[in-house]
Amino acid sequence: MRGAIVTGGSRGIGRAIALELGRLGYGVLVNYVSQPDAANEVAAHLKEAGGMAVSVRGDVASARDRAMLIRTAVEKFGRLDLLVNNAGITSPGRKDLLEATEENWDLVFNTNLKGPFFLSQLAAREMVRQVREGTIPSGKIINVSSISGYAVSATRADYCMTKAAMGMMTRLFAQRLADEKIAVFEICPGVIESDMTAPVKAKYDKLIAEGLYPIRRWGRPEDVAKAVAAIVLDYFPFSTGQRFDVDGGFHIRSL
Ligand code: NAP
What we know:
- It contains 7 helices and 7 strands, in the order E-H-E-H-E-H-E-H-E-H-E-H-H-E.
- By secondary structure, it is α/β, with parallel strands linked by helices.
């Protein structure tokens, strides 16, 4: 059975991705950091449907935890075909740019950028080894970035910058890993209903109704999971480093 790691697979977008991968026949390591019950529920659901799954606590910002996640996935599934870097946090307190703190910077950068970068490095080393020894035919890494990587929010500067850097990170790994049969993609979600956006629901209800973007509804975690499915089903065999916008058309500029 192909093996996948989904960071932050306990809730929201990561949960939908984990469930979709289970439907596609992947064994899934459902990573979480603070909500074991949510992660256990996802893993139980996957197992009830006949799949393999394990929920694993691990902070992506911790080097020790990152190594443990890769080791656990390989022990459990015998192979690692896919890493989805989904875990992420918004800027605590959403402070104005002029009040932004180094403490928040470190937390957001460690979780949203340093974690995915070094987890990708570990996953890539493992995938290279497995491709060369014939355990897996190819590997994939999918990074969940955000429209905040190019749309400015002055109350979430650190968050925006981590997501902008994730685009470059995607292209760096894509270029480096193409010869190793590992493809790397960025999925760029727009406004998606989840615990992360729950505190700003009223604000976005209004903006969406007023036409913030062409498709006037909230995005759903399943919208993002479907993009992951299209990639892992190999419908983009001649692509790598690609950004897929899952944003209701938010990226379209208009006059
Ligand atoms: P969410 O509902 O807040 O869920 C966040 C997930 O990440 C949870 O599973 C959480 O685990 C996990 N997590 C947080 N910090 C972690 C850490 N240090 N190590 C491991 N796991 C950690 O968020 P979401 O809305 O689904 O967002 C998922 C991703 O999509 C994020 O990268 C976010 O930036 C991106 N995104 C979201 C939106 C949106 O509108 N929602 C838009 C664009 C991009 P616990 O359950 O254990 O806390």
